[in-house]
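WARN no homologs supplied; continuing
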Amino acid sequence: MKVLVGFFPCQIREYNFKEEEYTAWSRRLEAQGVHPQWLRRTSKIKHLTYYHLDPSLIILADEQLLCLIDKKKVVSTVSEQRVNFSAARLTI
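OK structure emitted
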């Protein structure tokens, strides 16, 4: 069983209760960090869940944004300036 936790400033962690540790995706996300534009977001996370047809996809909704996070994709780095918050699909 896995659980998603979202907290300010727009951080996400995934914990695996069976293995009693953060998932590889969560550890990779924490180690690499996220794009600074993502960290500047000030909206509260309202909804965070797995997409029921594909658990590698996470649906995140805050006060201004609805996005689909694909855990299979590479995390955007600071040098990448392609973040578009108006897009429906966003890799963090």
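The chain is about 15% helix and 40% strand.
OK
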